[in-house]
Amino acid sequence: MDTPPAETFYEPLDEDRFASTAATAGPWSPGLQHGGPVSALLGRAFERHDPVPGTRIARVTVEILTPVPVAPLRVAVRTVRPGRRVSMLEGDLFHDERLVARATGWRIVAAPDHIDPTDHAPAPPPLPASGQTVVAWPEAHLDGYLSAMEWRYTEGSFTGRGPGRTWARARVPLVAGEDDTPLVRALVLADSAAGVGAQYDFAKLQVINTDVTVALHRDPVGEWICMDSRVHASPRGSGLAQASLADASGEFGQVLQTLLVDEHRR
């Protein structure tokens, strides 16, 4: 579609409560959210909780306890391990006071300016000049998160199988009236790893992540992020999605997801 389903993912109701818009809806149902906006909303709360100058959120893990409805949400954050150089934050996401997701985040003091940077990853491919039309399995809901993001694949496709690589950016802000931070931009995309690296036909198998871990050794620069993703699964096992995140200067982080791989339960 040419226009996003809403002008933002969330509308603020007060300091810790948000109305979810149609743009948050994932591909499985128009009434259930994609994990990207959910993760980013928790990450945003971490950044705003008792900020400490000279530190950064280096790692966020989100546990998706139940499908998150497209409905009003409340976020609560606390410090569980205080410290001047290293601290751990914990965040809860509620719908009607029911806990639907929980996250932890490590806040770490920024490294000294004089250390030598290291980069062992290959450079990302150039950003393609144009994007792809959002296409998926027949019953997928496209008029939500998938359309609120702009996708430019360089390997694989929405209907392809096997490892995939795409540049992507959100077409709407996370919260109305705000500019997304680098952490928010990374988290909005990160939960798409299993989809970008899709190995199976989603019309035949349900592949859903129970969690997402995002570790960033530096903050991304610019709107566009390149995700290089692959999915691993075994009979009588479970699934695992791994992805690297890069900007125009190179890789800046990694994504890991644990996956439920099962037959559809109609």
From TrEMBL:
Residue intervals of the Acyl-CoA thioesterase-like C-terminal domain: 133-261
Positions of the Acyl-CoA thioesterase-like N-terminal HotDog domain: 25-107
InterPro entries: ACOT8-like_C (IPR049450), Acyl-CoA_hotdog (IPR042171), HotDog_dom_sf (IPR029069), TesB_ACOT8-like_N (IPR049449)
Name the record gives this protein: Thioesterase family protein
Species of origin: Actinomadura keratinilytica
